């Protein structure tokens, strides 16, 4: 009887030890911590900000071009006006 009880207890310890499986290793990537919806929203926001800055740069280039053209017209008008009066 003692051998049977000892065998049963040893069997319980053995099954308890093998039944516990280690937790799966977590994959740690920078984006895995954020949910996909949040990541998509952040990407959309970044794209919108990039578009705004691109529009701003284009407007600045256009304004600079327009100023240059106006200055050239003014300079041409100034140089032709005195020549016409002479």
From TrEMBL:
Residues 20-39, 77-86 have a biased composition (Low complexity). Residues 53-64 have a biased composition (Basic residues). Coiled coil: none annotated. Residues 20-86 are annotated as: Disordered. Residues 1-19 form the signal peptide. Keywords: Signal. It comes from the Bacteria. Residues 42-52, 65-76 have a biased composition (Basic and acidic residues). This is Cell envelope biogenesis protein TolA.
